[in-house]
Design a protein that fits this description.
The protein has 12 helices and 17 strands. With 416 residues, the chain is an alpha+beta fold. It binds (2S)-amino(hydroxy)ethanoic acid (HGY) and manganese (II) ion (2 copies).
Length: 416
């Protein structure tokens, strides 16, 4: 395998520059479709152009940088090796989730250009639209458009602020009426490689610089709408209350019990709660909650849903409230093939870096792109296992290790 080195200083400087776009005192606010998301995309498009890539935006709003391979021109063009991740963050998120994979992918192309090393395969670097699903509650939005996995709910998606996806997609250069044009055929791609922070504690606790991802978790998401009766906090006897908040509290504790004590599935979370009218002296008449379960086994997610719905019925009866549980999204777990895991492991060994294999508890664009081409994911440590929070941190050395392994993986894939 030819040896080409990434430039660690440039990588970490570019990562820090992206980290300034959308940062405030609470963390990263570069949420999808925001002015900060647009600014972040503009920044990485400049880096792509500087690295010698042609840049386009597809109907799904995905930013796609492309560098032709040296097979182009003499004989049939080989399928592209695709690299990428996302630059959108969760609200008050961290600087590395998604961003590292994008900046490292561009660094890989820049380093190859600096070394005057032309790959046989064309290279594509993709910034996928709204990986987090923020606002529209339809995650992996751009990568699922490329994989041809959009559903009716995607076309009909309405943002929390009331705007339709149809009206917002043009803000980032997309066009919902032409979304089918974003779809890529399997024969256009050789493979997909993604570098990402682990977002969990395994690598940092174990002292491993590199993680080889064995599979990406499944995830089921629910909207729970509890309607009771708003009433006066001071005059309403306890026995006469139809209290949406005490019902919501019981549902939240049940979600923890389902994944915790009952071990029905791996994890369960209540991440959002809207209380109406949200005034201290009013018994809440309505509470809307976001619930999600994750597991590698889809049957465990199905069992968790049964338990959630059974609990909701029980609480609705006991509290004399109405509880509607609506399934919002069910994302299947995706295994990473043995030979793609081996490619990532060989890439780590080419740089003499220790590695360990592990599943991903976080979802990733790779789990959509895996539907149309073989995918591999490389992890680097998250200090303290913290992510989706301002304290998210990966050391410059670990970022550089990850980018070098990504480059090695690309070079190995280019030879195969
Ligand atoms: O939520 C996730 O698993 C990912 O960070 N989007
Ligand atoms: Mn994330
Ligand atoms: Mn991510």
């Amino acid at each position: 395998m030819p040896s080409v080195a990434i430039n660690s200083t440039r990588l970490n400087d570019n990562l820090a520059a992206l980290g300034q776009i959308g940062q405030d005192e609470f963390g990263m606010q570069r949420v999808a479709f925001s002015q900060f998301d647009v600014a972040g995309r503009d920044y990485v498009m400049e880096l792509m152009q500087a690295a010698g890539m042609s840049v386009r935006i597809d109907a799904g709003g995905n930013v796609i940088g492309r560098k032709e391979g040296d097979s182009s021109g003499n004989g049939p063009t080989l399928p592209a090796i695709m690299l990428g991740s996302h630059t959108d963050t969760v609200p008050s998120g961290g600087q590395y989730d998604g961003a590292l994979g994008v900046i490292a992918a561009i660094e890989v192309v820049q380093a190859l250009a600096d070394a005057d090393h032309a790959t046989r395969h064309p290279l594509e670097v993709v910034v996928f639209t709204n990986e987090e699903g923020t606002g529209f509650h339809r995650w992996l939005l751009g990568s699922r458009a490329i994989a041809g996995l959009w559903e009716a709910e995607d076309f009909a998606a309405v943002h929390d602020d009331g705007a339709t996806l149809t009206s917002r997609l043009p803000d980032i250069g997309g066009n919902i009426s032409r979304i089918a044009e974003a779809r890529r055929r399997p024969d256009e791609l050789a493979c997909y490689l993604e570098l990402h922070i682990e977002q969990g504690p395994t690598l940092h606790r174990g002292g491993y610089p590199i993680g080889i991802v064995t599979g990406i978790t499944g995830r089921s998401v629910y909207h729970v709408d509890i309607v009771g009766e708003a009433n006066h906090a001071g005059t309403t006897p306890m026995a006469l209350r139809r209290d949406a908040m005490s019902s919501a509290a019981q549902i939240a504790l049940a979600v923890r019990r389902i994944a915790g004590a009952m071990e029905v599935c791996r994890v369960g979370t209540v991440g959002s709660m809207d209380v109406h009218p949200n005034a201290g002296n009013v018994i809440p008449g309505r509470v809307q909650m976001g619930v999600e379960f994750r597991d590698e086994r889809m049957e465990s997610l199905a069992a968790a849903e049964v338990e959630l719905r059974r609990t909701a019925e029980e609480v609705a009866h006991a509290e004399n409230v109405a509880i509607a549980v609506t399934a919002q999204r069910n994302t299947p777990a995706v295994p990473i093939s043995a030979n793609m895991q081996q490619l990532a492991a060989d890439a780590a060994e080419a740089s003499g870096l220790a590695h360990v294999s592990l599943p991903s508890g976080a979802g990733h664009d790779a789990q959509a792109i895996a539907a149309i081409t073989p995918a591999a994911m490389i992890f680097v440590p998250s200090v303290g296992g913290i992510s989706h929070a301002p304290a998210e941190y990966t050391t410059p050395q670990d970022c550089a290790n990850g980018a070098q392994v990504l480059l090695n993986a690309l070079l190995l894939a280019d030879q195969r």
